[in-house]
Amino acid sequence: MDIILVPGFWLDASSWSEVTLPLVAAGHRVHPLTLPGKQSPDASRAGIGLRDHIDAVVDTIDALDGPVVLVGHSGGGAIIYGAIDERPDRVSRAIYVDSGPLAAGGVINNELPADGDDVPLPSWETFDDADLTDLTDELRAEFRARAIPEPRGVAYDAQQLSNESRFEVPTTIIACEFPSSQILEWIQGNHPYVAELARIRDVEYVDLPTGHWPQFTRPVELGAELLAAVSRES
């Protein structure tokens, strides 16, 4: 199976390096992406928006033969959902890592402070305690050293969707900060945060208790959960 991995904000393809080991060992072909404007801290992010990142995923799908699995972490969840809207017939499963689908008109996070075209990684005080669970001082230092500013447009642009076939793509939610029981309560309570998720026909939930960056805090376990989800499509 071809597996396309889309990192969250401030991260590039290398952020998946420890997670992909069991996938490769099982014979899968992994395609971790470095999205436009995130090649390096010095790369230009002028004019790069959410659609550019979605198009990069669509282009990767189109360059491959057969079905693919899309994995999106954090803000990458909105990006893979936009790609699913474009190519629902090519995606055998979507896997959201501490993330979920972003509805039309929604934005990933327009409250993050921007510096021109850049959204730098904010101070740790900006994040909730749940975000930072298991992210030790050493891991925080490593993360900050590798962090690449996010293009402002990716964080601030509104999602655009048009293809209701996106609701037919089987979906896995890997719940980290909040347990799956909490997500199901939100769905039952018609919480707007999960309104789009509630419209997907086939959703499974996996609990991986940790903070918002399991690829750093629990990479072995995350890789195992991805492999289990992908194996159901192989």
UniProtKB/TrEMBL annotation:
<feature type="domain" description="AB hydrolase-1">
    <location>
        <begin position="3"/>
        <end position="222"/>
    </location>
</feature>
<dbReference type="InterPro" id="IPR029058">
    <property type="entry name" value="AB_hydrolase_fold"/>
</dbReference>
<keyword id="KW-0378">Hydrolase</keyword>
<dbReference type="GO" id="GO:0016787">
    <property type="term" value="F:hydrolase activity"/>
</dbReference>
<dbReference type="Pfam" id="PF12697">
    <property type="entry name" value="Abhydrolase_6"/>
</dbReference>
<protein>
    <submittedName>
        <fullName>Alpha/beta hydrolase</fullName>
    </submittedName>
</protein>
<dbReference type="InterPro" id="IPR052897">
    <property type="entry name" value="Sec-Metab_Biosynth_Hydrolase"/>
</dbReference>
<dbReference type="InterPro" id="IPR000073">
    <property type="entry name" value="AB_hydrolase_1"/>
</dbReference>
